[in-house]
């Protein structure tokens, strides 16, 4: 069955989800770790709605250049609108496994929440290495969906929902593989960082509240989950919220590497 689609609807959802304070904070940590400098050429692979591209553009300034690349036309349309006032930014159509740039074209490259959707990660990392100059920096961030803590009463149903949700991407447990894969692609791993997302209450405009909607829509009909099952799962979480017994956390894993 198909993975999550970044079509018009998926794009609208990602725009809302990635505008939450939880993900805004995550982006600030990513920016600080990559530490793009004025005048640098930076690539964002799988740039989605372009929020990180816009911040990178401000970091490198008009003397630098930022390229965002994504294979989703709706995502690229949103990103182009966002950065229309920064002529040193380009949003390119393309695939992470076949980057449309010459060897050594960039000083730094970033890819957050993308390789977990890419079937051939070694090929994508070898492309990442190819387009960086020797000594260029890479930052790769992905989620391990085993890191989710979500308090529910019906744990058996919750496990079925989360198993079905793992079908939304190709690699639900990619982070542990990344250091070895980066090494084999020609990188030296220089940093390993944990970025937790934590929602101690069920509140609107949080990562977990918006994910309840997305997961409920995605898992229906998978792993034998009926409409009633999915409604029972969402009701369980909402009741925990009403009782002040809600707790959600999830870890992003971030790796910094230098092209050898
Ligand atoms: C979850 S979103 C993350 C967007 C962005 N990196 C961020 O963190 O805000 C995943 C993005 O990766 C893109 N994507 C997935 N597979 C890709 C591939 N093989 N090549 C290029 N983009 C890809 C999707 O279209 C989507 O925009």
TrEMBL record:
Keyword Kinase listed: no
Natural source organism: Petropleomorpha daqingensis
InterPro entries tied to this protein: Methyltransf_11, Methyltransf_Superfamily, SAM-dependent_MTases_sf
Domain Methyltransferase type: 43-139
PANTHER family named in the record: METHYLTRANSFERASE (PTHR42912), N6-ADENOSINE-METHYLTRANSFERASE TMT1A (PTHR42912:SF93)
GO MF annotation, one: S-adenosylmethionine-dependent methyltransferase activity
A biological process from GO: methylation
Presence of the UniProt keyword Signal in the record: no
Keyword annotations of the record: Methyltransferase, Transferase
Any Pfam family matching the protein: Methyltransf_11
Signal peptide: none
Protein's name in the database: SAM-dependent methyltransferase
């Amino acid at each position: 069955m198909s993975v999550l689609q970044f079509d018009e609807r998926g794009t609208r959802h990602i725009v809302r989800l990635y505008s939450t304070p939880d993900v805004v904070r995550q982006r600030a940590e990513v920016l600080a770790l990559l530490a793009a400098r004025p005048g640098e050429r930076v690539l964002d692979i799988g740039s989605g709605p372009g929020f990180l591209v816009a911040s990178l553009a401000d970091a490198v300034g008009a003397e630098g250049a930022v390229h965002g690349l994504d294979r989703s036309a709706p995502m690229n349309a949103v990103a182009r609108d966002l950065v229309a006032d920064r002529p040193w930014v380009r949003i390119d159509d393309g695939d992470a496994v076949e980057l449309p740039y010459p060897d050594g074209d960039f000083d730094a490259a970033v890819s957050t929440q993308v390789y977990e959707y890419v079937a051939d990660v070694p090929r994508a990392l070898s492309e990442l290495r190819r387009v960086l100059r020797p000594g260029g920096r890479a930052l790769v961030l992905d989620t391990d969906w085993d890191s989710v803590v979500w308090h529910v009463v019906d744990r058996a149903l919750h496990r079925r929902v989360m198993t079905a949700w793992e079908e939304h991407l190709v690699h639900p447990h990619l982070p542990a593989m990344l250091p070895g894969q980066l090494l084999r692609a020609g990188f030296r791993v220089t940093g390993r960082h944990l970025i937790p997302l934590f929602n101690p209450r069920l509140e609107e405009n949080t990562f977990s509240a918006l994910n309840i909607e997305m997961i409920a829509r995605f898992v229906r009909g998978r792993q034998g989950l009926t409409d009633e099952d999915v409604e029972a799962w969402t009701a369980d979480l909402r009741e925990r919220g009403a009782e002040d017994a809600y707790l959600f956390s999830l870890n992003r894993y971030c790796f910094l590497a230098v092209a050898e």
